[in-house]
Every structure is written in C-alpha cells, then in structure tokens.
Amino acid sequence: MNVLEGKSVFSGIAIGKISILQKVDTSVKRVHIEDVEAETARVEQAKDTAVAQLQKLYEKAVQEVGESGAAIFEVHQMMLDDEDYLDSIRNIIHTESVNAEYAVATTGDNFATMFAEMDDDYMKARAADVKDISDRLVRVLSGSGDGDLEASEPVIVVAEDLAPSETVQMDKSKVLAFVTRKGSSNSHTAILARTMNIPALINIEYDDSMNGKMAIVDGKGGRLIIDSDAETLKKFEDMKEEEQRQRAMLKELKGKATETKSGHKLHLYANIGSLSDVASVLTNDAEGIGLFRSEFIYLEKDNYPTEEEQFQIYKTVAQNMAGKKVIIRTLDIGADKQIDYFQMAHEENPAMGYRAIRICLDRPEVFKTQLRALFRASVFGNISIMYPMIISVTEVKQIKAIVEEVKKELTEQGIPFKEDVEQGVMIETPAAVMISDLLAKEVDFFSIGTNDLTQYTLAIDRQNAKLDNIYDSHHEAVLRMIQMVVENAHKEGIWAGICGELGADTTLTERFVKMGVDELSVSPTFVLPVRKIVREMN
Fold first, then answer.
1. How many CA atoms lie within 13 A of 435 on its CB side?
2. CA torsion angle 507 513 518 522 (round to 10)
3. How many domains does the chain have?
4. Beta strands 445-448; 422-427: pairing state
5. Which domain holds residue 180?
6. If you write DSSP's letter for every residue of 246-285 in order, what string do you get?
7. Side by side, which strands form the sheet with 200-202?
8. Could you tell me if 222 and 7 are in contact, meaning their C-beta atoms sit under 8 angstroms apart?
9. Could you give the residue numbers annotated as active site?
C-alpha cells in the first residue's frame, strides 16, 4: 500500500482506477513567414473561433455547475479580447516575421510568467488561465481540435495540472475525482471541483507507474492511497456508502423553502472566508451569505490590501450570488487573528483588547479604504455591511459619520454606489446585548456572534483548552441573551440573526425558531442539515 500526502481542495471519498491524463501536445515550432498581415489575420480568425468555443463551454457549464462556476469561461473570452495580450502577439509576428502559433505560445508563456511572479495569490492563479487560452488558440491555429477530454470509464483523473476548460469538458459521469501535482485552492479548477461536488486533491507527487492502479482518494485527509489492503479498502467503502446515503437524503431538500410545517419561514445563509467559498454556498443551496469574514483578505497578504483589490473581490462575490444577500463583515482582526504589518503591540489579554471595530475607528484610513471598496461593489449585487465587536451607541454614530464621509467622496468623484446599503452590527458582547434596544434604533439588523458572546458572558477564554469542560455554549445565560436581542430587534422593526457556530447546532434549531430568530448563517455544509430540522418542525 502506497500513501501519498497532498492537500484537499474538496472533501469526499472516491475509489477507482487511476487514469493519468495525457494532454494534447501544444508545443510549437518557430517558422519564418513572409506575409505578416496574413499571419495576423489568422490570429484574428482563430481568436473568433476560440471565443465561440468558450461560449459553448460557458453554456454547458451553466447547465452543470451554475452561473458562478461557469463565469471563468466568460473571463477567458474577455482575456482573448484583451488588447495588451493581442498587441503582444501582433508585435511578435511583425517584428520577428514568425508564425502565429509561435507568437501566441511566446505571449502565453510571457504573460503566465508575469502573473506567476506577482505577490497576490489570486493573480498568481491567473497564470493558469492565460496559459489555457493560449493553448486553445494554438490548437485552433494548428487544427488539432478544441481539447475535448473524455475518460472511457469512471476513473480518478490524475494530471500535472487541469485547466478549467478541461475540467468542464469532461464527462462528469466518468470522473470519480481530480488529483493534480500542481494547482492551488484559489484556482478556478478548484472552485469548479467544489461546485461539481467532485473530490479533489492537489500537491500530490505521483509517477506514471501508477496509471491504471486501484486507488482511494481521501478528500478529508488529503491523501491518495494506492493499492490499499483489504481492511483499508473496506473502511473507505463503508465511509463512502454512508456519505452517499447522507448526501442523497439531503439533496432532496435543495430548492425547497426553509420553513416549518406551519409555514414559518427562516432565512438560511452561509458563512464564508474567501471568494473561493462561494461555490460551496451555491452547491449547498444557501439563500445568501450571512457572514463574509473580510479579515481573511488581510490575513493572506503581506501588506494592506488596496481598495481596488478589495473591490474586485467584493464585486465578484456579489455578482456570483446573483442578487442574493451578501453580508460582509468589516475587518475583524486582533485577539487570535494577528497580522504582522499592522504592527500591533503585545497585549496581555488580546481577546478583550485592541481588535475589530476598535482598530478601524482608531485607523480611519484603513477603515475608509474598505468602506469605499464595499460601497463601490454594492452596485453589482445585494451587499449588506456589518460591524463587529460593538459595545456602544457612540461607536455606531462614529461609524455612520465615516460612512457619510465615504459616500460624499464617492459622489464628488462620480463613482456610483447604492445609497441604501443595509448596515448592521454584530452582537457579541454582553454590553451590546444589554443596550440592544438602543442599538436597534441606529441600524438595519443584528447578527449575533455566539462564539465571542459565549466567551465574554461566561468569562472563559475559548482558546484555553484547560477550560473546555466548562465552556458551555448552551448555557442558559447565553440563550437568554439571544432571546433578549431578538425581542429588542423586533420592537424596532429590524431583523436579528445568528452567524456564530451555535447557528449550526441542530439541537438548538427548534429553540431558535421559537425564539423568533429571523436568520441563521452557518458553514455551507450545514445548510441542508439545518433546513431538514426546520422543515420537520410543526
């Protein structure tokens, strides 16, 4: 038995034969040509053909993985029309008198290298995209087909890397899992794998001798197990059977309302930490995003993310959610989430220290950059904003004043934004609970962060393993606080939800509904289990 360790892109179990993907050879030769104009015309014709192919791929992907997963093929079409990219191809043809295939391949390599060397992980992942569109153009120019790939039987597809177009073109009934040596969890292929609910691993160092061998993809453990013994095989077969049974049962709930038998409706959203998580939101049929932890944008970088970088992420999430609610929490760092470039001093008790909204109000230039990006992105979907770690009405009024400054600046600069963006606060301190009647007059909604609320209410550091035995998220004090917040919200005509881990606790779902909680936001994989509980209630 041979066990190869890698990284999981999407969990799940697959058992079957390995099929190592042999890609179409897109290598080209440099050929001197005389008629550079004719060669340039060949590029234009090939580009039109490639765009048409991508449009077909987009339409196919929409049917299989939805608009979010298919969006990459619209991006590829736009990349093929990028003037910088096309100018480079034309320039190489004209200045070097070479064939179109060579000019396209060279440009593709140059642009891919440029993206790969960028500091931003998202931009690095675009290197694979520019290589993909260049390979497609070369195939069209050389008449070697459009790169359709099919497996002859259900197999575990193993490859050096997979372009998004290759992923979508495969017959999904023949693909058990994806395993690649390269790739990243930020790549579009990874997003598509998650959207298609296909187990996937990256960073697996395989060799060609494994082709045709029986293997197990352990999507949870991030392992590829080759030629397993009988005991291991039986264990994973049993796990896969249970996984399929649970999935089939929950799948029946997709598209159905989250409401009790008596017709009481509950909004059921999902929590995410990055753009790549949106696919899982859609796959699990959440009604929207109840918590986008924007701090991960900051945590993944070596310096402050720019307004434009943030804007592009918020815009893309809003577009992909296609009008469904997207609640974005402003920067929530400090405590257990430290960032070096913020240069924050050491604290004896960081959980109660310089964190979240306190940092934002103390560093308005950082806060305003994020708010500008959020309001700019608001015109592309249904974005709401919520502010963490609130303890006073004064803080809310300070936030409102900064928001008005941002709106005024955007208006003066002629930058469009939605005037009526819904704004709310997180209720995660006992102080916020006790003045929730006052806070409700100032905001559009409450979202209860039960992780911190439990910590502060019980005076127990949730990071301290020694206290696990007395850390009780079901403590009656915590549940009574939730009830108080909901009642005070409703008195002022605003809604109240829960976005902490407690929202996914199905042993409390019925109690939350009876409390009058309007919304639960949970990890994507918990959406259908919670919906099941709600639909079984009277």
1. 16
2. 10
3. 3
4. parallel
5. 2-23+148-231
6. HHHHHHTTTT---B-TT--B-EEEEEESSGGGHHHHHHTT
7. 2-5, 223-226, 214-218, 13-20, 155-159, 175-180, 200-202, 7-10
8. yes
9. 188, 499
pLDDT at 242: 85
The confidence score (pLDDT) of residue 147 equals: 45
Pairwise CA distance, residues 356 & 342, whole Å = 12
- Kindly indicate the confidence band of residue 149, based on its pLDDT and cuts at 50, 70 and 90: very low
Start-end of H helices in 300-347 = 307-320
At what angle are helices 100-116 and 36-80 packed, to 10 degrees? 40
CATH, residue 351: 3.20.20.60
CB 384 within 8 A of CB 423: yes
**Helix 83-96 / helix 100-116 crossing angle, nearest 10 deg:** 130
Q: Are strands 2-5 and 519-522 parallel, antiparallel or unpaired?
A: unpaired
**What are the C-alpha distances in Å from 391 to residues 28, 214, 306, 430?**
64, 58, 28, 8
Instruction: Give the pLDDT band (50/70/90) at residue 64.
Output: low
In a domain, 477, yes or no: yes
Residue 424: enclosing H or E segment and its boundaries? Answer: strand 422-427
* Domain stop point among 115, 142, 169: 142
Q: Identify the H or E element spanning 515.
A: helix 509-515
Q: Same structural domain for residues 385 and 461?
A: yes
Strand partners, 495: 445
If asked whether residues 125 and 161 sit together in one domain, one would say: no
Same domain, 387 and 449: yes
Sign of the C-alpha dihedral computed for residues 273, 378, 389 and 506 taken in this order: negative
Expressed in angstroms, the distance from the first to the final Cα of the chain is 51
